Amino acid sequence: MIEPDHLKLSIRQQCALLGLNRATLYYEPAPETALNLRLMRLMDEQYLKMPFLGVIKMTVWLRGQGYQVNPKRVRRLLRKMGLEALYPKPKTT
Fold first, then answer.
1. Smallest Cα–Cα separation from 37: which of 57, 61, 71, 67?
2. 3-state secondary structure of 19
3. Which member of 43, 69, 85, 87 lies 3.0 to 4.6 Å from 54 by CB, making a disulfide possible if both were Cys?
4. How many domains does the chain have?
5. What is the pLDDT along the chain (93 residues), one digit of tens a residue?
6. Which residue segment(s) compose the domain that 55 sits in?
7. Structural domain includes residue 26
8. pTM above threshold 0.70
């Protein structure tokens, strides 16, 4: 079914109705670098072996492997992968 011309909305009008800036519609996030993908693979393998490593210990482990990383990068990549250290939660009654 073809819509009549008076029912079509321009991109500008559609974005205005949704309250979005038009630049948001065309934005494409930059893909992860090859180094970040390698780090993510290494962290995933290490997480399967030791799921209790947090950001700091994972950073130390990666530095021991010869990678220059900081905790901010490790935290961002772990969040992107959906990984979180396993640790005892507070006992609430």
1. 67
2. coil
3. 85
4. 1
5. 566 766 788 999 999 999 999 998 899 989 999 999 999 999 999 999 999 999 999 999 999 999 999 999 999 999 999 999 998 888 877
6. 34-81
7. no
8. yes
